[in-house]
Amino acid sequence: MFRRKDFKKLELFGNGKKNTRVFKVMHIKTGKIYVLKEVEARSLDKLNEYKEEAVQLSKVQNHPNILQFYGYYFYETPHNTYKLGIISETINRESNLEIVYRKRIKIKQFFSENELLTMIYSLIDAFAYLEYVGICHRDIKPTNLFLLDNFQIKVIDFGESKEFSEDDEDDEHSAMATIRGTPQYLSPILWEAHVIHQIKQVEHNMFKSDVFSAGLVLFQMAALRDVNGFNQNTEQCNGERLIRDGLRILGKKYSNKIIDILGLMLKFEENERPNFIELERYLAKSNDYIPKPDMTLIQFFELKKLNKSNKSLLSQSTSNNNLNSKNNNNNSNSSTAITNEISDTQKIKIFNQYKIKNKLNNLINLKNAFWFEYGGNMIARHIISKNDTTSKWRLIAKYKSSFSYHFLTIYAGEEYGYFLIGGTNSNNTLQYINNQIIRKNSMNIERSFMSALFFFNNNIPTILAIGGYDYCDKGQLSSIESYDINKDIWSMNIFPDLNMGRSQASCLLFNQKKIFVFGGYNKNYGTLNSIEEINIEKKTCNIIKMKLPIPLRRFASVKISENKVLIMGGISRLCKESDEVYILNMENFNQVKYNSLPKSGIIEQEIYFDEIGDMHLFYENKYGTSPPIHIIYSFLDYNSV
């Protein structure tokens, strides 16, 4: 928790409602620049009400399209009032969506199809995440949104937000709630209650009201025209006709896909309008309902309502000469073996022979996995056992301090245990061994979302931190830091920089001579499919000719033979979660699509192998599932090894 005296005010950005002022500030100790939102409260009750914004922000820090929150402070003034200060990241004010809109409308500079689709996908994705964790924004408008350089949207200002749990099994679930928001961007039911009937509360679905508000903003950006009256249905103004005519005109400039999405978001009747999660399920083509290739969004939503009680999962099966496929069964946390006739004793023997033959000496074969809570202090353990999908995470300890957000956990063998490195606004290095947390020397750069690995470099136990994201400079890193575990020293420039800055990549050691860095993210190029090769002996780094089958970030790579690598899960472009698995031959550059994972999602935890060779994956979806979910995945064909 910060203190008021920790910061020096540099510039007043502006004033807002609720006695709010926004400043550019400098953290005196580190010299870092932040944004301070200062709100004055006339009573303790009001202070607690305003603190909810900080509480809500702290709960949604696992999404790149939501304002980065660092902490808050409060104090009592000499005038018997209270002031709350919320510390967040800095964003270029010129990228505020309202300012962007005003500039573009002057010169009639319309967004391209791809630019607008990126805006739509990222906005829906961010608000679907909020809905997933039960937080409704309630004040969606251009001034509360920023347009990033890659045309994704970033959401700010949670001053009107409310925590609310919607029943996933009841799409029409509504609640009596106080009306919040800006009149021009209210949903029709809220506008009528607020303006016509002048009442403060109305029963409505808050998430679907936010969908309409978001639809208005997106329409405004696409058409470069105000949306006054679009939420009204009076003798003077027919909002439904304005929407219908506006979309017809817009259809001459943009594809049916964009028009369908906007049309569904701007459905006048609330019960005909989807929520954000339903919208994203279609956009991500999730397995809940599989639309036909030529199905429009509206047809898809109608089909969803008709088939609400008949959900089906898409299962895929492919084969490979040396690798075994396991069909997905109804238990989404496990896979069922085709080769049931082989006993576990035989499988253990076969797997041990396979490891020796393919020189797989670096596989993690432990009886326990550990999880350390982002931004909290909990430490939990999960049992690793063959064919066991019933084990749960068990809380075993609490750290005396708090872990940072988005640090990386690396297992460095039985002798050294686990290392927790970097994280949001952190260059910490922590070692977890013998049930103790030991603070080690810090990294040279504060980096998060890096890739990292443990190996012996000339017999020296070493951890490499590769690339990552620098929260101070707001960009991807290309540098590599090397950590000598014995000397407890982080060093720069021992290994060459990457050819491009990349965060959220995956890396692995290959034949003790090379390190491959796969995919990741770069703010100028988006999600990447390129691969870099680091030669350990020659100290060189080059981008190789082979590319990933699809651009990916926040995924797993694991070596499964002398020359083959599995690429699993992650997030592809337009923030789509992936359940796909690929086999890459790093010698002849062949690629084979393999059996899909039981679920799509992010895999950033260590991968564990049990005694029969099954992989134990711990993955989270992009909503920041905590702790991660356990699944079992097999790659061996015991009959042909």
Q: Overview of this structure, please?
A:
The termini are far apart. A hairpin with a 5-residue loop joins β4 and β5. The model is unreliable at 165-173 and 286-340 (pLDDT under 50). The protein contains 10 helices and 35 strands. α3 packs antiparallel against α5 (206-223). The protein is of the alpha+beta class and 641 residues long.
Give the gist of this structure:
With 641 residues, the protein is α+β, with helices and mostly antiparallel strands. It contains 10 helices and 35 strands.
- Overall geometry comes to globular
CATH top level class name of the largest domain:
Mainly Beta
How much strand? 25-35%
The CATH architecture designation of the largest domain is 6 Propeller
Sequence-ordered SSE layout with sheet pairings:
Elements (H helix, E strand, L loop, with lengths): L6 E10 L3 E8 L5 E9 L2 H16 L9 E8 L5 E7 L8 H11 L5 H20 L2 E2 L8 E3 L5 E3 L6 E2 L11 E4 L9 H9 L4 E4 L1 H18 L15 H12 L5 H10 L10 H8 L13 H10 L20 E2 L6 E2 L7 H14 L10 E5 L5 E6 L10 E5 L9 E4 L6 E4 L7 E5 L2 E5 L10 E7 L2 E11 L4 E10 L4 E4 L13 E5 L3 E9 L3 E10 L4 E4 L12 E4 L4 E5 L12 E5 L5 E4 L13 E2 L5 E5 L9 E5 L8
Helix pairs in contact: 3-5, 3-8, 5-7
Question: Which key terms come to mind for this protein?
Answer:
single chain, 641 residues, alpha+beta, Phosphorylase Kinase, domain 1, Transferase(Phosphotransferase), domain 1, 3 domains, 10 helices, 29% strand, globular
